[in-house]
Amino acid sequence: MLDWSAFLELSLPVGELLVRGTITFLGLMLLLRLVGQRESGGLGMTDLLVIILIADAASAGLTGDAQTIADGAVLVGTILLWSILLDAVAYRWPQVGRLLKARPKPLIENGRLNRRAMRREFMAETEVTSQLRLHGIEDIHEVERAYIEPNGMISVIPRQDTETTDTPEPPAT
């Protein structure tokens, strides 16, 4: 017969689980922040980190790597708490938010490539021009500004004096 109470008892002290969850979350957050924006893909870095850590913490409780489901629940709660807390701090204090949250980085300014930002993101010129083509732009000189956004996507602001193929047509009247 199953001992249901064994599933819900903690096998480790709550304090130890909180410390483990905190160190893991903040350590991985720092590492992902250092890696760069392009590596985090279409999700925000914090979103990606939360998904990975919650899946890992929850799977430990489900697969038996942790002693009980309660251990996994404490870790999931710790991870969610830190995610919400860091978002709240970044919102409340924008100066701190600049450290916690990635900002857009200019890849093209006034039709010229920003090689420093490209090196930081390990982007070759061919990758930038490929992204421009997805926006309907053939020549870098047609771009006023292009940014790599915090979610890894590239946004493009074309020059006003040039036409692009993805310019919306006026509505029919």
From TrEMBL:
The chain crosses the membrane at residues 17-36, 48-66, 72-93. Residues 93-161 form the YetF C-terminal domain. Belongs to the UPF0702 family. Pfam families: DUF421. InterPro entries: DUF421, UPF0702_alpha/beta_dom_sf. It is found in: Cell membrane. Keywords: Cell membrane, Membrane, Transmembrane, Transmembrane helix. It comes from the Bacteria. It comes from Citricoccus alkalitolerans. Its main location: membrane. It is a multi-pass membrane protein. Gene3D superfamilies: bsu07140 like domains. This is DUF421 domain-containing protein.
